Amino acid sequence: MSRFMVFVFEGIDGTGKSTVSKMVFDYYSSIFPGKVFLFSEPSDTGFGKRLRDILKYSDFNLNIFEQVLLFDADRSYFVRNVLLPVMKSDNIVIVDRSFISTYAYQILNVDDEDLRKLLVDITEFSTNGVFFDVVLFFDCDVEVSLSRRKERDNFESKGVGFLNRVRENYKKFLLGSHKKIGRVVIIDASKPLDEVYNDVLSVFREFVGDVV
């Protein structure tokens, strides 16, 4: 490992991305103590924890504009106060969700062109120029992902149709080029967990090196 690298795990809930990201973090932390960091969106800051509560338990009827503003505010705060200081050294950063989720769940579901452009501008600004070396998109059928979930949040409660649209939004966004994303890898998340983990490790080894 000779430079700062960011790996992003994306996909709808129930694909195993959070579980595997923790497994990869544990593995590389044992090899590079103090040089590997695991973050998530919403962030684990005080701001992010309050946002998680709103998303999971609140009966607020937030529209897409309001949702994006909350996610972008949390992201901006997290990048400025947590991520940028970590970027000053050669570290491995693993992030469970990113601004890409905001595109998939909110922005690409906006029909109004002016509103969509406004949300894109705000969301892009919230990243503060952070570059992702690799985005790993965990993909599987929505029905499979829902069957793995014990508890559903406000987004999942919108049903299979909404989540299928989110899944397609992910693919649409990731198939296009983006200046803040290096490589995109699609992970078959329908496989058993140990196989998915090994597939992800093989991607990491291309960038970090074979440290086994």
How many distinct helices? Answer: 8
CATH T-level fold name? Rossmann fold
**CATH architecture descriptor:** 3-Layer(aba) Sandwich
**What is the strand arrangement across the widest sheet?**
2-3-1-4-5
The CATH homologous superfamily name equals P-loop containing nucleotide triphosphate hydrolases
Number of E-type strands: 5
Shape designation = globular
The N- and C-terminal alpha carbons lie at a distance of 13 Å
Share in helix:
40-55%
Calculate the mean pLDDT score and round it: 91
Structural class determined from secondary elements: alpha/beta
* CATH class type: Alpha Beta
List segments where confidence is low: pLDDT < 50 over at least 5 consecutive residues: none
Alpha-carbon Rg, integer? 17 Å
Strand content: 15-25%
Number of domains: 1
Largest sheet: 5 strands, parallel
Order of helices and strands: EHEHHEHHEHHEH
